Structure formats: structure tokens, C-alpha cells
Amino acid sequence: MPNRITLRNSEENQNTNNSNSFNLFELMTLLIQYRKTLFGTVGAVMIITALMVLLIPNQYKSVATLLPSGPADKMAEIKALAGIGSLSSSEENSSQLFPTILKSYSVRQAVLDSSYQFEQDGEMITMTLPEYFDLGNSDKLHRALASITQVGVDKKTGVITFSVETEYPGLSQVIAAKFISELESFNLLKRRSHAKDNCEYLSRELNKRKNELMAVEDSLTAFQQANRSWDTSTNPFIMMTIARYRRTLEIKNQTLLYLNGEMEVAKLDAKKDMPIVQMLDHPSRPLIKSSPARTATVLIVGAVTFVFMLFVIVVSEAAKRASRGVAEESFEIMRTEVRTAFPRSTRTVNRLLKVEEISVD
After folding, report:
1. How would residue 320 be classed by pLDDT, with cut points 50, 70 and 90?
2. 3-state helix, strand, coil in the chain (%, to 5)
3. Long-range contacts of the stretch 144-153 (C-beta < 8 A, 24+)
4. Which of 18, 137, 174, 245 allows an S-S link to 220, with CB 3.0 to 4.6 Å?
5. What confidence score (pLDDT) does residue 121 get?
6. Tens digits of residue pLDDT in 270-285
7. Tell me: the pLDDT tens digits for 62-121?
8. Using CA atoms, how far apart are residues 149 and 63, in angstroms rounded to an integer?
9. Cβ(185)–Cβ(111) under 8 Å?
10. Could you give the CA distance from residue 43 to residue 314 in angstroms, rounded to a whole number?
């Protein structure tokens, strides 16, 4: 029997597509039909989430605010958008490096090595950070400390916000204060600047010139002692040597006086050049927990579960409709093929059905 191709018109395709789509009334019907499954699942997930977030201890955040020590860069925001750094054009006494210093390995290590004493529920508690994190590995301790600290910079004003979040309000406060203390110590003792380098250079030169001056003075004294009558002597060699020593001694004295003056100026410049940690708000002792947001977490999880379950219900119902439509379409095609292949048999069957209906009546 030759193969036959059955064509469906556009109206049938349109009907099939419409059968697989849902309108608002049908969605409401599905919600009512599957309400027990939908709301039961959402309620169970929300209850489990609530129990889980209740097990999470409260966290308390201590916040400190630092003022910029240099002038704020008015083009900082545009430079940040363009990917151009502003450190190269900033003054040396700028506080733009403060966030990097606070997050540095050396500062974190100093914080980890310290012991902290704070008040909790009327009792004084002494604790170290390895005890708080219950960790012994150095790398893990650094990562854990980084996870509870946060540094933010306002690009327009240059104001720096630093925060520490732990389970104890007092511990958060003392850790934040330790970070600020280490920042001040780093600025005073370790941070280098052009003025500080200049001061160190002048100090080395000053010591060198002092030694040279002392050497010339010693040589002149030794020569005078060897020639006790040098002041009344008319020997040209003695007179020339004494004059040379005095001339060299005068030059060394003038050089030493000049370096002393430059040294005093450099010391003042070094003090002015060093960025000062200006506190706007000292580390606070938090009274209200900062996290976790239990109610918001439960509501968000419930909303996500509701949307997901609704999506699953709609997809499953659409799949059922599609399977029923395919079955009906296949049956119609087969029926059409049988009628075309056996027209007489089809007419005979139809007649018998009509006769049976008449006899029944």
C-alpha cells in the first residue's frame, strides 16, 4: 500500500497550541486543585528553614568610621569607572592605602596573635581568636578573620568604614579597636614616605660628616702637638699645613651646620607627611544583632518554593495535555487511513451501527 501523508490545516495547529496554553482562570483552577500539595510543600519547607535559621547564632557588628587624611579626589568616581587608578596622583599623606593596610597579612597576624578581654552577660571573658574560631591552621585562621571583617570606602568623600562581626558584642568591639591600633602603629613605625626617606638620608649624611669633621680635628690636633711652636713658626710647610687643616675644618663645620638645619626641616616634614588616623566614630559596642535576618530568610525561601512548585504543577499539567492531544491526533490519523484504505468496510460498519440503533429503539 503506498505511503500517504496526512496534512493538518492551520486551524488544527492553532487548536492544539491553545490546548497546551493556560489562561488566568485555568491557573486559578490548578491552584485550587493542587492546593494541598502546593501549600503543604511550601509550609514544610518554611518550617524546616525556620528551624535551621534558629540554630544559627546571633551576630553583632561593631563599626568604626575613619576620615580621610588627604584631600578627596573629585574625579575618583569617574576614574574608577574608567579603570584608572588614583593612587599615582594622590598625595603621599593620603589615607587611600588604609583599606589595604587593614586587610594586609601582617595586620591580621597581629590581630590573631592578641588576646581579648570583654564583658558578656556581666562576666569578664578572655578569649583568643584561635579559640573563638576553634582553628589551629594559620591559613584557615586568616580566612576566618577576613570573613568577619569588612572595609568600605566612599569614593566621593574618601570616608572609610570598617566593621567586625562576631557572636559577642564586646568581642566585635575589641577586635575592631585592635585593627585600628595596628593601623596607627603601621603608619608611625613602618609606613615609608618621601619625607621619611629624606630624613633617613640626611641622618646618615650627618653622621658621616660628623665623623669626617672629627677626623680633621684629630689630624689638626696631632699636627699641632707634633709642632708645638706652630703659632710662632715661620716654616712655610707648617704654615701651609695649618692653613689647609683650618680651611678643611671650616668647610666641614659649614657643611655640618647646613645638614643640621636640613635635618630639622626634614623631621618636621616627616611628621606632616605621615597620614594621621582620624577617627570619626570609634568602634561601637553593638546592642542589636546584625544577622541573621530570620524572618526575611523564611519568607524568601517560602516565596521561591511557591514559585517553583507552581512551575512544576504547570509543566506537569501541560505535559499531560500534550500527551492527550498526541493520542487523539494519532487516533484520528489512523481512522482516516482505515477509511481511505477500506471504504466499503467502513460503509458496511456504519450501516450495521445504524441498524443496531434502529432495532434498539
Report:
1. confident
2. 65, 10, 25
3. 145/108, 145/111, 145/112, 146/103, 146/108, 148/175, 149/102, 149/103, 149/179, 151/99, 151/102, 151/103, 153/96, 153/99
4. 245
5. 84
6. 666 666 677 788 898 8
7. 999 988 875 545 555 555 555 544 444 344 445 678 888 899 999 999 999 999 999 888
8. 10
9. no
10. 20
> For strand 278-281 and strand 115-120, is the pairing parallel, antiparallel, or unpaired?
unpaired
Q: CA-CA distance, 134 to 167, in Å (whole number)?
A: 14
Residue 88 phi/psi, 5-degree rounding, is -65, -30
* 305 contact partners, CB below 8 Å, separation of at least 6: 41, 42, 45, 46
Q: Which of 12-16, 129-133, 203-207 has the lowest mean pLDDT?
A: 12-16
Report the half-sphere exposure of 276 (CA within 13 A, side-chain side): 7
**What are the φ and ψ backbone dihedral angles of 55, each rounded to 5 degrees?**
-80, -15
User: What are the DSSP E strand ranges found in 129-276?
Assistant: 149-153, 160-166
Distances (CA, A) of 18 to 31, 269, 321, 333: 20, 82, 11, 20
Q: What's the CA angle centered on 197, arms 196 and 201, to 5 degrees?
A: 120
The H or E element that residue 63 is part of is: strand 60-67
Amino acid identity, residue 329?
Answer: E
Q: What's at 89, amino acid-wise?
A: S
Q: Of 116-120, 162-166, 191-195, 292-296, which gets the smallest average pLDDT?
A: 191-195
Which pTM was predicted? 0.57
Q: How far apart are CA 61 and CA 173, in angstroms?
A: 8
Name, in order, each residue with C-beta under 8 angstroms of 92's C-beta and a sequence gap of 6 or more. 193, 194, 195, 273
Residue 240 has pLDDT above 80, yes or no: yes
- Band of the pLDDT at 195, cuts 50, 70, 90? low
* Residue 207 burial (10 A CB sphere; 0-12, 13-18, 19+): exposed
Tell me, what DSSP letter sits at residue 276?
Answer: P
In whole angstroms, what is the distance from residue 184 CA to residue 320 CA? 70
- Reduced to 3 states (helix: H, G, I; strand: E, B; else coil), residue 291 is strand
